Amino acid sequence: MKKIIVHLKSLSDTTRIICLSSPPVNEAKIHEIFGNALDDQARTNEGCRIYSEALVDLCKEMDVEAINLWTAVQQRDDWANSCFIDGIHLSGEGCKVVVKEILKVLKRVDWEPSLYWLTMPAEFPEDSPYYVVGPDGKTTLNVSGHVCIWQKEWLNI
């Protein structure tokens, strides 16, 4: 893993890396759905915890951003049932945890240019006939600075 990170960091001065650790798993759901078919793979919460802690420690040593998904997912009381579709793969709710954690990093880090979505300049800030037409049917609206309803949940990160 260390060799991979060193190689990635040497790609360019503008390369940005965020490592994501493994999330926990719902072992009971895995056995319910897959039976003993996955036993030889030994995917356990304990194994995921050990891997996650090692990844976070390595990233600190290498000065690379890391997100500990094992801890982040478990912040929800109902994580075992709401964050996975089958005990291993993330559900929509589990993916929201990942997005939230990535946005926290993007907002916190001092990268140039910033990759945080609200600080990025609009690609086409000038008026354009291709913008959304306003209620009067004539005026166009530049929506590049508009925050949609679905985006508002990410504003408090």
UniProtKB/TrEMBL annotation:
It comes from the Eukaryota. GO terms for molecular function: hydrolase activity, acting on ester bonds. SUPFAM superfamilies: SGNH hydrolase. Gene3D superfamilies: SGNH hydrolase. Pfam families: Lipase_GDSL. Belongs to the 'GDSL' lipolytic enzyme family. PANTHER family: ISOAMYL ACETATE-HYDROLYZING ESTERASE 1 (PTHR14209), SGNH HYDROLASE-TYPE ESTERASE DOMAIN-CONTAINING PROTEIN (PTHR14209:SF10). This is SGNH hydrolase-type esterase domain-containing protein.
